[in-house]
Amino acid sequence: MSSPFHADGCEVTAERFGENAFLVTVDGPRGEQVLLKAPGWRHTKLTDLVAKRHLTWDDGQVLIDIPAGRPAWLMVFDPPPQVSIFDFDPDPVLLTPRSPVERARFPVVDIHAHLCLASQTAAERVALMDELNISLVVTSAFAERKETTADSARRFSDVAPGRFRAAATVDWSLASRPGGAALMAGRLASDVAEHGAVLVGEMHDKGFGVDDPGAGPVPEDPMYLDDPRLDEFWAAASDLGTPVIMHCGDDIAFYRPWDERNEALRRLYLAPWSRRRSGGLSHEEIHDRRDRLLTRFPRLTVIAAHLDGCAERLDLVEERLRRHPNLHLELGARHRTLARQPRHAARFLERWAGRVLFGGDKVQDRTAYTEQFRVLESDDDAFRPAGHVEPWPLYGLGLPDEVLRALYSETALRLIPALSRHTA
Q1: What's the pTM?
Q2: What integer pLDDT is reported at residue 176 of this predicted model?
Q3: Per CATH, the architecture of 11-77 is what?
Q4: 152 near 169, Cβ under 8 Å?
Q5: Where in the chain is the domain with CATH 3.20.20.140?
Q6: What is the C-alpha to C-alpha distance for residues 299 and 239, in angstroms, rounded to an integer?
Q7: Which range among 84-88, 178-182, 187-191, 347-351 shows the weakest confidence by mean pLDDT?
Q8: pLDDT tens digit string along 141-153?
Q9: What pLDDT does 221 receive?
Q10: What is the C-alpha separation between 10 and 28, in angstroms, rounded?
Q11: Residue 275 reports pLDDT greater than 70
Q12: Is 166 left (phi over 0), alpha (psi -120 to 50) or beta?
């Protein structure tokens, strides 16, 4: 096999040394430096066995010293395999104590679900909830799927009112029509009176307005959260005492370039719902508009979905909580981000135990729920998340019982009194 190494004006020989290295001899001008070349060699070290020092390849070449009295002698390690970030899935060698959590320590009220996305019946869902110690789930439907609050009630809360409650499904496409906010306000009042809606189900502004369907053309006249045309609806929600789950922006990384420096690169490609279209408001502008709404409507209770899209920056979230007493949070399956900062996150949740609620999002299965319980309850180190989307190991927060009780149910029952009438 021909040697992959060469240096101008030198004799270069190489022989295999084990499975992952070469012993390389370079004989050339004594006492001078030469450029050793090996196309494709990078991301690895080589060792000058005479000078006892490590050298680093610079995209297929490295400057070496030839001693005055002998040839240069090098240990050159093979370049690493070119593994895609999507294929990198190492088997951990680290072994630490494990304490999987198969059932929540205390009863859970999940305020953020979209059970309409599955064909599961209420009875089938209740069986899973009983296994996991989930006492009640608030579920909302999607107007863009032509679903209504009545659909959530018919399938779940009417069948098992002690275990499910409907969230109001609002058709935000009405917002830009003349009289749209008044029509939305009237429908919300009807949903509360007729279907027992306990909150306004998850609504979105990811930078293109509340009436943006999330795909396809961007609205020509986007209606943002603080648009005066929505005031009548916010006033109605305030008067009814109906909290609103607001999904403001996506995770911070989604607003940054999709390149090798983006920590969410794998998720951006593997989770299509994470993708943003070009244009729209910045992450900061979305939240600034929401915060202006909170100030203008101090009796409006807002539950920020997914830890306000800022689980990586709990300092920003904490600042907003201090400024706006009518702002609350729900986890929204952002436990994995908390699990990257377990001590900081645990302190945050302890300080704000009365302002954070448990929410799961979509149709959580057993694996999704128990992973969240394990992050919140255990002090396990470096355990792997389910699936292949997130590259980071998880660390348990080990929350104390009083914080878990508040997070799992007490805050929800206090904030949404209508839940208490149907929760054992």
Answers
A1: 0.89
A2: 87
A3: Sandwich (2.60)
A4: yes
A5: 108-422
A6: 8
A7: 84-88
A8: 999 889 999 999 9
A9: 84
A10: 4
A11: no
A12: beta
Residue 252 contacts by C-beta under 8 Å, 6 or more apart in sequence? 283, 309, 310, 312, 313
The CATH 2.60.40 portion of the chain extends over 11-77
Dihedral sign, Cα of residue 354, residue 360, residue 365, residue 369 = negative
Question: How far is residue 77's CA from residue 176's CA, in Å, rounded to a whole number?
Answer: 64
Residue located via tokens 């299965």:
365
pLDDT at position 133 over 90: yes
CATH classification of 108-422 is 3.20.20.140, yes or no? yes
Q: Please, what sign has the CA dihedral across residues 336, 283, 264, 246?
A: positive
- Residue 213 in tokens: 């369907």
pLDDT of residue 45: 85
- Are 375 and 336 in contact by the 8 Å Cβ rule? The answer is yes
CB 202 within 8 Å of CB 362 = no
Please, are residues 287 and 320 in contact by the beta-carbon 8 Å criterion? Answer: yes
The per-residue DSSP string of 154-166 comes to IIIITT-TTTEEE
- Partners of 73 in beta bridges: 25
| Under 8 Å between Cβ of 24 and 13 | yes
Residue with tokens 């809360």: 157
Nearest-angstrom CA–CA distance, 90 and 30 = 44
| Stronger pLDDT, 89 or 124, i.e. the higher one | 124
At 24 the pLDDT is 96
Q: Under DSSP, is residue 111 helix (H, G, I), strand (E, B) or coil?
A: strand
DSSP SS3 for 371: helix
Spell out the residues 6+ positions from residue 167 whose beta carbon is closer than 8 angstroms to its own.
Answer: 138, 139, 140, 149, 152, 197, 198, 199, 200, 201, 202, 245
Assess whether pLDDT exceeds 80 at residue 2.
no
pLDDT digits (tens, 9 = 90+) for 226-269: 999 999 999 999 999 999 999 999 899 988 888 889 998 888 88
106, 132 in Cβ contact below 8 A?
Answer: no
Binned at pLDDT 50, 70 and 90, residue 272 comes out as low
* Cα angle for residues 311, 316, 319 (degrees, 5° grid): 130
